[in-house]
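Checklist before submission:
- one chain only
- standard amino acids only
- sequence pasted in full

Submission:
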Amino acid sequence: MSSSGATLTRMTSTARRRSGTTSWPLAVTLAALCILPVIGMAFTQHFDGRENVAYQCAMLPDLPAGALHAEVSLQGASVTSMPAGRLCTFSAADGGTVSIQTGWPTTIAGLVASVLATAFSAFALRVRGERGKLTTLVPVAVIALIWAMVLLSAHTVSM
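Returned file contents:
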């Protein structure tokens, strides 16, 4: 290899290392920040279904359009995982049922944040290689644990 080719190879590998030293912390930090919307989703689910989800549904200030306005109108109450929130089912004035679901905005934010955290972590693994692999995967692991809690906390209250 000529001396100019060797110099070019050294310059390229040095530029890659410098790029990796700034890219990896940034990618891991962005992946860690993606945990926040996922935590927000889990908190929304928790607050929407805390203590007694049937009571939460019965105390809604505004019933969904078409719901029968009576004390026995509530037919079902659930803490849901997709979306992470609360589902209240009421008897409809015309004979069927009408439902109201909470949690869509925070669930969508949690899904988008989960995908972004995975992409940032994959990029960080590509830049860093085997060094720092455990640290790079921590945000994705935390997000997976939060999703597991959200999925496992879904339940229905019998009426």
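Reviewer check: The chain has a mean pLDDT of 86.
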